[in-house]
Amino acid sequence: MQLTEVAKGASILAILDAARRRKFYVIVPALVLTVCVGAFASRLPNSYRAQALLAVERPPASDLLKMGGTPGPPGIQEQLRVIRETLFARPLLQEVLKEFTLYGPATDPDWATEDMKKRIRIQVEGTDAFYIGFEDGDRQAVAEVANRLAELFVKSTSASQEQNVEEAAGLLDQELARLRDKLADEDEEIKEYKQKVGEELPEHLGTNLKLVEALEMRLQAKRDSIGENQARRAQVLEEMKGLQKEPAQEIQRELPVEEPTAEQKALDEKRLKLKELEAKYTEQYPEIPRLRKEIADLEQAVAAGPRRKSRSDATAATSRRYPGPDASMRYLALKGELEGIDQRLRSYAPEEKALQAEIASLRQRVASAPKHERALAEMTREQALTRSQYQGLLEKQNEMKMAERLRQKGQSLVFKVVEPASVPSAPSSPKRERILLLGFVGSLGLGVVLAFLVEQLDTSFDSADDFKTFTNLPLLAVIPSVRSKSRSGRKLPEGGKGDPHLPQPNLRHLQKNRVVTVTDPGAIASEQYSILAMKLRWHLGEAPSRVLTVTSASGGEGKTLTAVNLSFALAESGLGKVLLLDADLRKPRTHEYLGIEPRPALSNLLQDPERDIYREAVRLKDLFVIPGGSDFENPVGVLGSERMRRLVERLRLEFRFIVLDAPPILPIADPQVLAGYADGVLLVVRARRTRRELFKHAIESFRATNVLGVVLNGADYAGSRYARAYEYYRRTYYKQNIRTGT
Q: How open is the CA angle 450-455-460, to the nearest 5 degrees?
């Protein structure tokens, strides 16, 4: 069987599902932290705020200037920085500190000044008004301090406005002069740099590239001439060697009667030139493909023209003999031609070197262009930054001059107190409701995160889909959680009613122990047990008697509860006599779920094989129960003994279906032995309890080959994809059956 490790997802749905399943981790931190935050907020001291409203008093000259097109004085928003600087001036704040005992006598004045700045609030109200506020724990003092701050601010603005303008104008003049000098220096630096680099500037890049291309073409032409002369020199030397080998008295030279055509001569020249280029360059050189195409065209033209006589025909037709003196003349002519070729080749060498040097120089200029371009760009950028700073300061200077003219004409900003600060009736802070709300939201989020982290660390199976992604074992049934008390409102039979084999105390006991197939047969869990019973009958076939072993990976997973409910479901299916055998010799618990007296029935049958089975079994409707026993020192040896094998064979003859409640797989070997007696093995897994690594270890150690599948016990249908279907069944069919009593 295949086991696959799949990590849990971290989607929004997964987080919400984790919070729903682990409500404790969400609710408890939310409640505790909210209470703590509320207690903290209640202990915070009250703080009051008083505000005085100030407005701009504009003289009549301002309106006249506006009508004439001259802009009026700036508004409050534009003067906010100046207002803050004036209000936070140290002399103004120290004067307020002297008038009001806001701090103790031993307080550091600097610290008191900085702390007072933190308590002052400036709030813009429209274009021509703003508030000056102050916060403190004394409601009477905040109103007095706010009014005093407003009065001192009005006095300070009118007294210091002219002085500030003069100082700012002087600073602006100095900075503008410095920037002008800097701009001049940067202009001179750029000019000198351009003169220094000269032809290497980026603007000459195109010209330099064209010059390089032209010189390379000249160099190539020169090299072609050198190649042609070298080829001719080789021909001359070859012919001179031939003349030296002939006797001096008689040298015969055979020449064809017909001279080669112009196409043939051109073809020979281009073939020679192609060989020279192939010896110097690769196939990617652009002249090579072009020459090959021209050679192919010439070959076609020569083939299409009049046929030249072959060498044998020319020799047979006519031949001329050169006497000795003629051969000598020919030799001398070739020698003179050779000297001319050597002279030309010697003259070509310095010309080629000069062209190469000039090309290298131009390429150096081209390569240096990006470097000079970056340098010029950097200098230009610095110059533009300086120019921008200069323009900005120049605009500020113009604005300051305009403000000075407006002030002289009575158009500057003049503030006045419009509405004095009053004593506040309620504290402005802390906002306890907001703090409490934020604390609740934060603690709730912390609880959700905590629940999600716990969910991620939990390696148990969440749902049926989660189990299916882990193993390929068939999932035969998914049993929802069953409460010890029914929530449906179904009443148990009262005394004297119901099955005579199940008296009233037993029904209460079965309901307490969640034997839902008897106490609540219409519930979803009971229906799932019935479906499981039908699947098991189908898997085990139509044999006369079938044995099923029920086990789990470890204890506490609902193995015995599943065996009890499944046995009742099989008995109710009309199958015939069904036996529930408690084969757990170490810790038998079947009698606890059924409310019957504990007795060593299985032990008695093993010790006395001839003992009557029905005397030891307890009958509940069509279900027979044989409780276990714990009187054996070696349970594994007893279960694997011949007596146990014979007992199982006897039971097969008496009952149509036998359910063996086996011990857990880990850490004992009892289930291994009991699986050998059974036709099939049913594994019980409890949702959100059975860990993956434990189940994996149990499956790997369990060697039985007749495992039919798995029952997922204690599943949460509310969070599954089928929740609506089950809820519809519960509200429609199940409640209807309860009302009708069926």
A: 155
Q: Does domain 464-740 have CATH number 1.10.540.10?
A: no
Q: Are the C-beta atoms of residues 555 and 634 closer than 8 Å to each other?
A: no
- Length of the chain as a residue count: 742
Residue 565, CA distances (Å) to 533, 534, 537, 735 in order: 10, 13, 15, 22
Residue that the structure tokens 């599954």 belong to: 720
| Tokens encoding 155 | 């006095």
Where do the DSSP E strands lie in 565-617? 578-582
Q: What is the mean pLDDT of residues 585-600?
A: 88
Does the domain formed by 205-392 have CATH 1.10.287?
A: yes
Residue ranges, CATH 1.10.287, the chain: 205-392
In the chain, which segments carry CATH 3.30.70.1130? 50-160+411-419
Contact (CB, 8 A) for 132 and 149: yes
Q: What type of residue is 475?
A: L
Going by their DSSP bridges, the two strands 546-552 and 578-582 should be labelled as unpaired
Q: What is the DSSP letter of 460?
A: B
Q: Which of 238-242, 268-272, 333-337 has the least mean pLDDT?
A: 268-272
Residue 730: pLDDT band by 50, 70, 90 thresholds?
low
Token reading at 718: 């509310």
Distance CA 429, CA 607 (A): 84
Structure tokens at 73: 């004085």
Most confident of 166-180, 277-291, 487-501: 166-180
- Taking only the tens place, the pLDDT of each residue in 297-326 is 887 887 776 555 444 443 443 344 444 557
Report the distance separating Cα 704 and Cα 473, nearest Å: 13
- Asked if 29 contacts 450 with a C-beta cutoff of 8 angstroms, the reply is yes
Nearest to 92 by CA among 150, 50, 134, 135: 150
pLDDT score of 659: 96
Write 724-729 long-range contacts (CB < 8 A, 24+): 726/480, 726/524, 729/524
Rounded distance between C-alpha atoms, residue 398 and residue 181, angstroms: 20
335 Cβ neighbours under 8 A, 6+ residues apart: 240
DSSP state of 471: B
In whole angstroms, give the CA distance from residue 486 to residue 394.
88
Of 490, 478, 590, whose CA–CA distance to 528 is shortest? 478
CB atoms within 10 A of CB 708: 20
| CATH 3.40.50.300 domain span(s) along the chain | 464-740
- The DSSP secondary-structure symbol of 551 reads E
Q: Do strands 546-552 and 680-686 pair parallel, antiparallel, or not at all (unpaired)?
A: parallel
Name which of 679, 670, 665 is nearest 551 in CA terms: 665
| Mean pLDDT across 563-580 | 92
In whole angstroms, what is the distance from residue 179 CA to residue 183 CA? 6
What confidence tens digit (pLDDT) does each residue in 331-377 have?
Answer: 888 888 888 888 888 888 888 888 888 888 878 878 877 887 788 88
Pick among 3.30.70.1130, 3.40.190.10, 1.10.1520.10, 3.40.50.10330: CATH of 50-160+411-419: 3.30.70.1130
Question: Tokens 């003169």, residue?
Answer: 195
pLDDT score, position 65: 43
Contact 87/151 with Cβ under 8 angstroms?
no
Per-residue tokens: 406: 């407006």
Q: What is the DSSP letter of 655?
A: -
pTM score, whole prediction = 0.50
Helix/strand/coil for 620? strand
